[in-house]
Design goal:
6 strands, single chain, about 50% helix, mainly alpha
Length: about 325
């Protein structure tokens, strides 16, 4: 396809009469009258691929898929296109077509030739499913892939379950980024026993020389409240209780999920919400005994008075 030039350089520099034309296939720029060639190759600054967004005909980019640690080849694999044409758009000969077909076959085989590549492909496919099931962010997924690759370098995957090891790496990543996900929840979603995941978790901590920060119970509270269907008033009261507990250092050594669940149940008792301990315990992934113990501790140490049913009915 031949297109005309812009208004700025529409005339030929030699004859000054005819307009400049551009061949869209070869990239040559030449005069339509005397045939004077200005440029043999013009760099195309247009789009190379569609972004497949709502504005797919307007929002396009020349860049390809971004590199990612969560891909077995980090997104840098060689891709041989399916079009049997050369750079000028001409169809390939029969012999060259056979050669390109063989190249495509060996290219696809070479991407998962080594054992490490096959291990990463299986592990990161599990990670992709976990990302959807647990609603994880890209930062958590990238951190998980980084930890898993470090484990592979040290040879920790030999003789161990790939799902168990990727689940342990994911739990480590959640702890480091402050994402409120429990070990029980991760093990249940990937369908691996908690004992196996915790064993791999301790191994990674020891071999990779990592230290985990303590999870903030305030970050856990919003998630538990949402799954329990609690009101905003109850959330605000529970937030005040947790802030007072942090100021008086009551939360030290306590399970963050259990402490957050107890603060929510205490807030429900203050405001007369009829949500039971069982509902909050299921949402938090802890037992009802844990909630009762933390509930009593918060009431006594913070000196919080909970009105009885008669008082609440009078206030209502």
């Amino acid at each position: 396809m031949v297109v005309q030039g812009s208004e700025m350089d529409a005339r030929c520099a030699r004859c000054g009469k005819a307009k400049m034309l551009t061949d869209g296939t070869t990239g040559e720029r030449f005069c339509g009258g005397c045939g004077f060639v200005v440029n043999e190759i013009v760099n195309d600054l247009g789009p190379e691929r569609q972004s497949f967004s709502k504005e797919q005909f307007e929002d396009r980019a020349r860049t390809g898929v971004p590199t990612s640690l969560a891909m077995h080849d980090m997104g840098l694999a060689t891709v041989i296109g399916q079009a049997n044409k050369d750079s000028t758009g001409k169809p390939l000969s029969a012999s060259m077509k056979n050669t390109i077909t063989r190249l495509r076959t060996w290219d696809s085989r070479s991407q998962v030739h080594e054992a490490t590549e096959r291990n990463c492909r299986q592990a990161f496919s599990e990670l992709s499913r976990l990302k959807d099931k647990l609603a994880l962010s890209d930062a958590v997924v990238e951190k998980t892939a980084y930890i898993y690759r470090k484990a592979l370098e040290k040879g920790l995957a030999k003789g161990r379950s790939i799902p168990g090891l990727i689940a342990a790496a994911l739990y480590l990543s959640c702890r480091e980024t402050g994402t409120p996900r429990t070990l029980n929840e991760v093990a249940r979603r990937i369908n691996v026993k908690k004992k196996d995941v915790s064993r791999c978790y301790r191994l990674l901590l020891q071999e990779l020389d990592m230290t985990m920060p303590v999870l903030d119970p305030i970050k856990c509270m919003s998630r538990i409240a949402s799954e329990s269907g609690l009101s905003e008033k109850v959330k605000r009261e529970a937030l005040k209780i947790l802030e007072q507990a942090n100021e008086k250092e009551i939360s030290a050594g306590k399970d963050p999920m259990g402490l957050a669940a107890a603060a929510l149940y205490l807030s429900c008792a203050i405001h007369g919400d009829s949500t039971t301990q069982k509902v909050i315990a299921i949402a938090a992934g802890v037992t009802e005994v844990t909630i009762r113990n933390r509930y009593k501790g918060l009431r006594e140490l913070l000196d919080i008075q909970v009105p009885d049913k008669k008082t609440r009915s009078e206030l209502a």
